[in-house]
Amino acid sequence: MRISFIKKCIYTAGSLFILVSAAGCFGGETYKFVGESDHWEGSLNISKDSNTVQKEFMVTYKGEVEELSEIERISFGYDAGTSSSEVTRTIDREPTEKHFITESSATGDTRIEEGDVIEATVQWDDQEETFEMEVE
To answer: What is the domain-level CATH number for residue 82?
Structure first.
């Protein structure tokens, strides 16, 4: 049951991002920041129009999904100086996906610009990796 819920959330997040990206083609701006560390890849997708900002931050484990079965808790986030986000999730079942996603939406402008360098951090159990993300 939980696996189905996670898949629905991922599908919804992907669909929403595609829709927002398509809307960005009609006068908005869309940026995709990417980066990686030894164990993780990260991306921050930002779509903004005249009064709405959508952000989707995703980290993906580079190894096999089975390796994540040992993890009890993961925290992931980014810091762009003027904007940041951090999420902690408890993993209480066998993982079926290698990526973790968080989304946000706000009215107004984002202070993240195309030329910014964003610092991402992933903590899983007693390990931590930090990496920079830049516009793709």
So the answer is: 2.60.40
Number of domains forming the structure of the chain: 1
The region that residue 39 occupies, defined by phi over 0 for left and psi between -120 and 50 for alpha, beta otherwise, is alpha
Expressed as residue numbers, the domain containing 82 is 2-135
Looking at residue 70, the DSSP 8-state letter turns out to be G
Each residue's pLDDT tens digit in the chain (136 positions)? Answer: 556 656 555 555 555 455 444 444 456 889 999 999 999 999 999 998 888 999 999 999 999 999 999 899 999 999 998 888 999 999 989 999 999 999 998 887 777 888 899 999 999 989 999 999 999 9
**Rounded Cα gap, residues 10 and 93, in angstroms:** 17
| Residues β-bridged to residue 101 | 58
- Which residues touch 13 (CB under 8 Å, ≥6 apart)? 56, 101, 103
* Nearest-angstrom CA–CA distance, 47 and 24: 6
pTM of the model: 0.77
Number of helical (H) and strand (E) elements in the chain, helices listed first:
1, 8
Residue indicated by tokens 């940026």: 31
